[in-house]
Amino acid sequence: MSGKRLLTRLDRLSAARRLRHRDAARDREDLPDPARPAGADLKPPIRHIVLLMMENHSFDNYLGRLGRGEGLPDPPPVNRARDGTAVTAHPFSRPTQTEGVPSQSWRATHLQFGGGRNDGFVTAVEDLTPGADRTLGMGFWQESDLPFYHGLARTFPLADRWFSSCLGPTFPNRRFLMAATANGLIDDAIASVIDRPSAGTIFDLLNRHGISWANYHHVPPGHLWRKQLGGRQKRMATLALGGLVPWIDHRVRGDIRCTANLYPLGVARTLGHLRHIEKFFEGAAAGELPAVSIVDPDFALSSEENPQDIRIGESFAADVIDAVMRGRGWERTLLIWFYDEHGGYYDHVAPPPAVEPDDVLPHSLVDGRGARAWLIRHLHLFSELRREDDAPGRYDRYGFRVPAVVVSPFAREAYVSSTTFDHTSALRLIEEKWNLPPLTRRDAAAASPWEMVDLDAPPAFRRPPPLPAAALPHAWRRVEGLDSPP
Questions:
Q1: Which of 25, 324, 328, 449 fits a 20 to 30 Å CA distance from 404?
Q2: Within a domain: 486
Q3: DSSP-based three-state secondary structure for 465
């Protein structure tokens, strides 16, 4: 048996095991087209879906002065400090950020929301990081800082109501992208990431029906295997020791380098579906990308999370999008550029209510049971986690707005969508493309962004349109120590 056939068989076996709790009859009823079999291609003009999710910026923070869609109102909005000082939304004077400020933790995000007033972006900094610059959450960048992004959002369809999936940080929101649920997670602690959602992930559904997918990452070859197979190195220390001793977890928190790892993958799927970022550029050029691609930035260097220079991440996204547009598969591709959450930066649109995905309630490690929770409570080793998680809340509301643009030859010209989307809208797009059942109540209720393309008319962007260069072209390659593009 060839290696490829073996991996396919392992995929099917893994999917069968992980999806064994699903109700087959209910799944058939819930298919986008119940008259056709699951896995059927309902949108044949599109062969490749690419999800490029960057990190930690709100719509107003990046596109508030775009002049398209609902950006920052005039006069500029104001949040007040604890002493009553008014802090107005203002442009930043530099492209770099401050480490840890503002925060997008569960507690910080709920403070910023302020019961729907969106008035806690200054006081959240005061409460959680005393002594830090309390004005940072009210800053935004302009076209001169991010010329490629502004050109992209003026050229292709823009969604000005794309919300993150919950009022929380990176890990829960990226979990929604994978499984339409955070499965109770509310923080970015690696010790929490050892569970699986009962309904499975989108990868399980794709594997069940033989639909190809890959998660492209920046982990050096070999290192990812050491992380996956253990090698008695950081991964094992994180899950074994970090699960019991929180300060070990803290030292490596956020170190998961691929979106797909936010639910345990297993060896078979690591073999077949996690690929280095250079493989993405090769596949895009040849028109050989899989059916579904998740493209990750280097979370430490080019993701745009603080304290990074935002221009480094823009250069990465620009190269990914350019590779898709110039590649042989462009005429059959749909790419979504969007962000996992707002990063603690101001947005003036209050997140609306959302359908709760399932019956799993948000919970913190500090409220758990067993030796790990006992150490957390009695030895006070994880005060930071308590501070970040200490806020009431459920998954019954979206998080703040994030930038989102659909890039495709079939994209509608001069189009702005004000439909309410969240990250499970990307799942719904995949489900409606390949006639797959929803994973949870959230993606079942989600609107998909098919309205932003026209598959029945001649492609408006058959020839890729010219876009502005990034502020620092190809800078991410220099930062990551990679060869320059050919």
A1: 328
A2: no
A3: coil
